Amino acid sequence: MLEFFSDIAFTPAVKAIQSEKGSRSSYARMESGGSWETTVTPQLEAFLSDLDMFYLGTANAEGQPYIQYRGGSPGFLKVVNETTLGFADFGGNRQYISLGNISENPRAFIFLMDYGRSRRIKLWGTLRVVEGDLVLLDQLRDPSYPGKAERAMLFEIEAWDLNCSQHILKRFSQSQVAPVIEKLQARITALESELRQATGEQ
User: Fold this and answer.
1) For the chain, how many structural domains are there in total?
2) 78-108, pLDDT tens digit by residue?
C-alpha cells in the first residue's frame, strides 16, 4: 500500500536521489499537502477534450519498455468513469507489441502533451483490452474516422500529475495553424485589392 499516491513514481530509490540532489524536501511538502490526483477532475477532462494525440507506455514481463504514439480526433481519449479512460484500438502494422505486453504485464503509462499551450500530464495505471463489446466500442469510436475499431482499451488510473511547462518547445497542429493562415491569406487578398484600387491597377 502506497503512503502517498506519488509513491507510484517516487520509489525509495527515486527519493534517495531526490535527497542527494536537494529536491526531496520540496516533494515531501507536496506529499503532505495532498500529493497527486487519482480520479478524473474537471481539469483533466478539459485537457482531454482538446487532445488529438498521446503516448502510451507499456512493458513486457521482463520490464522491457515500449512507447507507442496514439492519434485521433480531439477528445478521442475519453472519460469512461471517474477512474477510467478509454479509447478505440484500430488496426495498424499488426505487430501487436502493446497487446502482447498488456497480456503479461498490465501496468501502463500515458503521457499527454499539449505542445501549443506548453502543458503535459502524466498518468500511471493499468491497461486492459476489451474484445467484442459493441456498446463500449460505439461509445469510444469516432464516427467520422474511417478506420474500423477492432477493440476497446480501458486505462484504470492509479495516479496522475500535471507537470511543469519548463523546457516544452511550442508546436502547433495543422488544425490549429490552418485558421490563422486562412485569416492572414484573407487579409493579404484584401490589402492587395486596396493597393490595386489606390494605384489604379486593374
Assistant:
1) 3
2) 999 999 999 999 877 789 999 999 999 999 9
Q: Return d(Cα 118, Cα 74) in angstroms, integer.
A: 17
Which amino acid type is present at position 12? P
178 to 48, 53, 154, 187: CA distances (angstroms): 21, 18, 33, 14
Residues whose CB falls within 8 Å of the CB of residue 74, separated by 6 or more in sequence, listed in order: 49, 50, 51, 52, 175
Is 44 in the same domain as 11?
A: no
Question: Comparing C-alpha atoms, which of 66, 139, 137, 71 is closest to residue 103?
Answer: 66
- Cα–Cα dist 9/147, whole Å: 36
Please check the confidence at residue 202 and state whether its pLDDT lies above 70.
Answer: no
Check whether residue 119 and residue 178 sit in a common domain: no
CB 79 within 8 A of CB 39: no
Residues 118 and 103 in one domain: yes
- Residue 141's domain comprises 37-171
Contact indicator for 30, 6 with CB cutoff of 8 Å: yes
Same domain for 31 and 42, yes or no, is no
- Shared domain for 12 and 30, answered yes or no, is yes
